[in-house]
Amino acid sequence: MNTQARLLAEFLRLRIDESGKTLAVLSKQVGYSTSQLSTHLSGRIPPHDLVVGLIAATVPPALRERREAEAVRLLRDAEHPPRAVAKPVVPAQSSAVSLAKVQADQIQVYERLTRALEQEGELRQAAENSARLVWVLLGMVNTLEDRVRQLTGERDRLAADVAGGELEAARRRVGRAEEQKATAESELARAREKQRQAEELADRLRQEIEALTDDLDRLRGEGPSPHDHLRGPVVASPGPGEERDAAADDIDAALARATAVNDQDSDTIDRISTELTGQPTPVPQAQPLVPDNSLTSPDMANITAAQLKEDARAAAGRGNALEAARLYGALAARSAAYFGPHHQDTLLTRSYHAYWVDEAGDPATARDLYAILITAQNRAPAFADHEKTLINRHNHAYCTGKAGDPATARDLYADIVTDSLRVLGPDHKTTLASRHHHAHFTGEAGDLATARDLYAALITDRTRVLGPSHKDTLTSRHNHASCTGKAGDPATARDLYAALMADQNRVLGPDHENTLTSRHNHASCTGNAGDPATARDLYAHLITDRTRVLGPDHEDTLASRKQFDHWAREASGA
After folding, report:
1. What angle do CA 353, 428, 437 make, to 5 degrees?
2. From the centroid of its chain, how far is CA 151?
3. Long-range Cβ pairs for the range 542-549 (8 Å, 24+)
4. Closest alpha carbon to 132 in 329, 380, 337
5. Closest CA to 312 of 325, 302, 296
6. pLDDT category of residue 242 using cuts at 50, 70 and 90
7. 3-state DSSP call for residue 125?
8. For a FRET experiment, which of 166, 240, 427, 547 has its CA 20 to 30 Å from that of 180?
9. Span 106-125, mean pLDDT?
10. Which residue, among 245, 36, 216, has the nearest Cα to 112 in the 3D structure?
């Protein structure tokens, strides 16, 4: 296995981890068996269609084009790994001058390519250092906010007691903490800017590397790849220690380390920028800390985490989905910076964020948020088979179908049902709910007969566990009748609806929307089963009740009127 094949395999495995999909699900989507997928993901060079198929199946649409370009580039590198320049075989009649020129060109191109690869490695490392530093500094800023608040309270208490020398010392501590907070915010802005600059320069270098690689392809011989000589990652300093209320001296030392990392990356970026463009990168003006999350407002950083949580809960309690999504998004970013991305509070807040994003009408974004959350939970041993992880997988699959991909949702639910049966048992509410949605999206994906059979089995278990009158049991019975009719058996569907309506009248009442919907579908199946006159009469009675309950201009009333006209014409032979 060459280095480029290993990098491609790692790249594809990371995309799969981020999607939250299993190999069994992907096998159906890309047309390769799970054993074939495992082989290719272990370092064997995959075919082009598999690479493109995996990207399409695992990457959100907004990122798909970029990720596919990266994967195809890695595949090309794996198929044509760089080699050392072989000594050209020169015909005896070639002149010494021509030979010298060819050799000089080869050496020049190879040196330029090697240097570009080294520069790209340095820039990617600088970007990674800056990304790590952003998280460290976000935690430091939040810690310093708490420290300033605590010291200010101590200062004010001493001022009220007229404590003399102690008051002056308290004032100095507050001033020092405020300076430290300002320094942390400034270094945070620098880290973000350096990350952006490094990524832009690295992308520019990648284009040059591809051009140089094409030039050198004809000159390659056997030998090691220039990539093999790039230095490994340098892990950024983690900043302050485990004690979040560290003394001021420790905070100063941590800030000094952050400044040193920023300075080192700044020197790297400026040097490479000068080599490429002749000018160093421009120095941005320091900006006040404003979170990057689009769901936050400029003053969000000035709200305490406790207040943010309270406001988010209040918005959710009011049913204000947009506001709840915005606040939980900000709280999730704050929690990740303070506790870390895998802390249980962070994971819980991120699940609330994804839920309210879906409730606000954006299932595609919610799907992607759930996918990232599931990957994080699977990496935390305590959450791998936890009920909360299964619930998030359930919500991820639901949002996937809601966003317009019922086939993938069906496959995701198939895996969820298997794991729920193993972890939670057959009678657990989450297991039963997952089976219901598996049947639903099976029908939405076009396999109505299988959906009908899945609902039939589910009704038996829901009746046993929840009872025949439970709303979930009634819902499954309704969907079973619907799939039965759509699968080509309107007579059986008519009888299923008739039995369902009797129970809905008793449990929900005759004016409940679900009862009225079942009456509408019962009349339709009656007509489709060959009895248009009875269907006409059923719709006539339904129109009277829907007009009374919903009003004459309601869309459901109008739909019943349209069906009445249709079956009236059918009954008259017109």
Report:
1. 60
2. 40
3. 542/516, 545/510, 545/511, 545/516, 545/519, 546/516, 549/511, 549/516
4. 337
5. 325
6. very low
7. helix
8. 166
9. 67
10. 216
Residue of 436, 420, 533, 435 whose CA lies nearest to 478: 436
Residue 350: how many other CB atoms lie within 10 Å = 25
Q: Could you tell me which of 128, 130, 188, 135 has the C-alpha nearest to residue 337?
A: 135
CA atoms 567, 568, 573, 574: torsion sign: negative
- The pair of structure tokens assigned to 518 is 């079942």
Do 129 and 261 meet the contact criterion of CB atoms below 8 Å apart? yes
Cα gap 147→153, rounded to integer Å: 10
Residue 67 CA, distance from chain mean position: 14
Size of the chain in residues: 574
- How many C-alpha atoms does 473 have within 13 Å on its Cβ side? 17
- How many Å apart are CA 265 and CA 282, to the nearest integer? 14
* Dihedral in degrees, nearest 10, Cα atoms 536, 540, 543, 544: -170
Q: List, in order, residues 6 or more apart from 528 with CB less than 8 Å away.
A: 485, 490
Angle (CA) 17 12 332, round 5°: 35
Residue 220 φ then ψ, to 5° = -75, 145
Please report, as a single letter, which amino acid is at residue 383. F
Helix axes 471-486, 513-528, angle to 10 degrees: 20
pLDDT over 90 at 531, yes or no: yes
Helix (H) or strand (E) holding 427: none
CA torsion sign, 295 to 301 to 306 to 311? negative
pLDDT tens digits, 25-59: 888 888 888 778 777 787 788 899 999 999 999 88
For residue 511, name the pLDDT band (cuts at 50, 70, 90).
Answer: very high
pLDDT for the residue numbered 296: 34
Q: 502 falls in which pLDDT band (50, 70, 90)?
A: very high
The CA–CA distances, whole Å, from 3 to 126, 148, 222, 229 equal: 22, 50, 14, 11
DSSP 266: H
Statement: residue 527 has pLDDT above 90: yes
Q: Which range is most confident: 91-100, 195-204, 522-531? A: 522-531
What b/e sequence results for 510-531 when a residue is b if at least 16 CB atoms lie within 10 Å of its CB, and e otherwise? eeeebbbebbbbbbbbbbbbeb
- 160-199 tens-digit pLDDT: 665 556 766 776 776 677 667 767 776 777 777 766 777 7
CA–CA separation, 282 vs 303, rounded Å? Answer: 32
The SS3 call for residue 85 is strand
84 φ/ψ angles, rounded to the nearest 5 degrees? -70, 150
**DSSP secondary structure letters along 97-117:** HHHHHHHHHHHHHHHHHHHHH
The pLDDT-based confidence of 275 (bands split at 50, 70, 90) is low
